[in-house]
Amino acid sequence: MSEPPRRSRLSNVWLRQHDIDVARASGSWLHAVDGTTFLDFTSGIAVTSTGHCHPHVVASIQRQAERLLHGQVNCCRNSDLERLAERIAAHTPPRVDTFFFANSGAEITEAAVKLAKHATGRPGVVTFAGGFHGRTHLTMAMTSTRSSHRHGYAPLPSSVFVAPFPAGGSAAEVHAALVGFDDLMSSQCTADDIAAVVVEPVLGEGGYRKAPIEFLAGVRERCTRHGVVFVIDEVQTGFGRTGSMFAIDGTGIEPDAICMAKGIASGLPLAALAYRSDLDTHWRPGSHGGTFGGNPVSVAAALATLDILEAPGFLDGVRARGGRLLAALAAVSAQHPAIVDVRGHGLMTATEFADAAYASTVQDGCREAGLLLLTAGPTGETLRWAPPLTVTDDEIDMAVERFTTALGQLHDPQPHMNIDTHHMESYR
Ligand SMILES: Cc1ncc(COP(=O)(O)O)c(C=O)c1O
Predict the structure, then answer these.
(1) I need a surface site. Which of 17, 94, 202, 232 has the fewest CB within 10 A?
(2) Burial class of residue 123, CB neighbours in 10 A (0-12, 13-18, 19+)
(3) How far is it, in rounded angstroms, from Cα 187 to Cα 165?
(4) Distance, CA 106 to ligand 1 centroid (Å)?
(5) Percentage with pLDDT > 70 across the chain
(6) Rounded to an integer, what distance in angstroms lies between the CA atom of residue 239 and that of residue 283?
(7) Could you tell me the CA-to-CA distances from 33 to 24, 37, 41, 181, 395 in Å, in that order?
(8) What is the pLDDT of residue 418?
């Protein structure tokens, strides 16, 4: 008699979009133990931006691992941590020049709010509809991508308010969202209640939708007027993902603080909060901290990651490859009415379908064809393409071919959907 399959001791709670038993990984590729290979256009949710196991990053990690694995910041000075802050500061607005380090995106978003609370003496936070900021209780309260992230976890922290996000980029939508923000500030809270406003420059889990610059400028102006700390959450967009070091680069928007994580260290856990040094005087020593924040091995990985991202022409290449992917997907969408929208910002690219079930079937078909994609959007109706920033033109072409193969094996649903011509702008 055959033995019953052994029950896994791993938690049931992880949602498994794919379940690849990885033997090794390199660049854009995952090699499974059964010999199958996959083009990994998930990058571990936009983390392994320099590709899997980039030799320069691995060598830096190895060198550091032989010197010191953990030197807790309360006890050990790490000159590399100072160096990392210095190097990131070269890319942040001039006044955003002071750094706190932690391990994850949620943790660093919490840190931003804690800093803002001390800096302003106020309790509240405003976030935006469709935003994702993490899985801790505070960041769950700040998250409004899907109710499943919050369901059953009440009570969540109070004094978190959700303002409208402009779904499209039109002037009318921006105006309506800013009016909504003003309404919120007069109907549900007052400026005296709000410590921080936190916004993603491109909604990540919310479906790769860009916040129009005029919208960010309007929110910036309101934060200044109300004495609120304006925080940009660049956890997913930062470190080259959108084709510039940070998504707000070149927009003229100056936040008071920036949250960073994910791509910062090519796969090792690290997060950074960059903020205005004048806010630092309010953050008393010992009022925040953490055991692992600024771990030396993660810092070594981050320094090596920056070497790669800062190489001349690297970010130009990201923009060029992002354009190539977007154009190829636009061409596919012209043949497949099931794709209702294609949009992209650097290598943060989305193909949106009419519903989640169809997107999920396409995702499964892509995996069968050897391409890994993740879902996003309010109902999971969008497939997100977040390849390593080191992806090659050939790999992009191969990925689009696999996507086309997967689509070809499905029957197009009746087109009760519209091509969203607004987002067509991003093809140009
Ligand atoms: C914009 C944004 N903020 C915060 C987070 C939370 O990051 P983490 O999962 O590292 O806690 C995420 C994760 O997807 C994110 O995309």
Answers:
(1) 94
(2) middle
(3) 17
(4) 6
(5) 95
(6) 26
(7) 8, 9, 19, 51, 22
(8) 38
Q: What is the 3-state secondary structure (H, E, C) of 2-31?
A: CCCCCCCCCCCCCCCCCCCCEEEEEECEEE
Reply yes or no on whether the pLDDT at 423 is more than 70: no
Q: Residue type at 153?
A: Y
38 vs 55: CA distance, rounded Å: 20
199, 202, 207, 208 alpha-carbon torsion, rounded to 10°: -170
pLDDT digits (tens, 9 = 90+) for 94-150: 999 999 999 999 999 999 999 999 999 999 999 999 999 999 999 999 999 999 999
- Are the beta carbons of 142 and 161 closer than 8 angstroms? no
3-state helix, strand, coil split of the chain in percent (to 5) is 40, 20, 40
Which helix H or strand E contains 383, and what residues bound it?
strand 382-385
Residue 412 has pLDDT above 70, yes or no: no
Best residue among 14, 133, 142 to mutate for probing ligand 1's pocket (most ligand atoms within 8 Å of CB) is: 133
The string of pLDDT tens digits covering residues 249-301 is 999 999 999 999 999 999 999 999 999 999 999 999 999 999 999 999 999 99
Which of 107, 137, 236, 273 is the best mutation target for the ligand 1 pocket, counting ligand atoms within 8 Å of the beta carbon and taking the most?
236
- Tokens 């800013």 belong to 178
b/e per residue 69-87 (b: at least 16 CB within 10 A): eeeebeeeebebbeebbee
The C-alpha atoms of residue 260 and residue 271 are separated, in whole angstroms, by: 5
| Residue whose CB lies within 8 A of the most ligand 1 atoms, among 235, 273, 345, 348, for a mutation test | 235
- The pLDDT of residue 420 is 39
Q: Note the residue count of the chain.
A: 428
Residue 283 CA to residue 324 CA, distance in Å, equals: 45
* Atom number of ligand 1 nearest to Cα 269: 10
Residues 6+ away with beta carbon under 8 Å from 227: 120, 191
The rounded Cα 12 to chain-centroid distance in angstroms is 24
CB under 6 Å to ligand 1: residues? 45, 104-106, 109, 132-134, 200, 204-205, 233, 235-236, 261
SS3 144: coil
Compute, in angstroms, the gap from residue 261 CA to the centroid of ligand 1. Answer: 8
Residue 213, phi then psi, degrees to nearest 5: -60, -40
User: Atom 8, ligand 1: which residue's CA is nearest?
Assistant: 105
Question: Is the pLDDT confidence value at 211 over 70?
Answer: yes
